[in-house]
Design a protein that fits this description.
Layout: H1 2-12, E1 25-30, E2 35-39, H2 52-62, E3 68-74, H3 83-90, E4 98-102, E5 108-113, H4 114-117
The chain binds tetrahydrodeoxyuridine.
Length: about 130
Amino acid sequence: MDDLVAAARAARLKAHAPYSKFLVGAAVRDERGRVFGGCNVENAAYPQGWCAETSAIAALVMAGGRKITEVAVVGDGLVTPCGGCRQKIREFASPDVKIHVCGEDGAIRRSFTLDELLPFSFGPEHLR
Ligand code: THU
């Protein structure tokens, strides 16, 4: 998973976070093993900003990916995905997908499954 964490670290350095000054990077791996990074992008109209995980998912989808098989988040402290991003990951990931929460140095602080972070979740299969 070194490539995943490296992509998340590199993405973090591109964050646009002038308001919180809290830089976050994320990376997702798709069903073909490809890795996509993303950073948080804040906005002067604060609620319009979005998270690093959201950017990474958008990059995966734009490249034709439709499954998330692994996730890494890099930030200061234990930066677990927010509720909205957990649901966005859920759209493309199975419950056992690992979400690695890493420090700025890339060291994994904790790894969770999606199901641990978003139990009893609602997903696409509910609509089929
Ligand atoms: N943030 C992320 O990008 N990902 C997370 O998992 C948690 C929070 C961002 C959103 C905002 O730009 C900043 O961190 C402070 O909340």
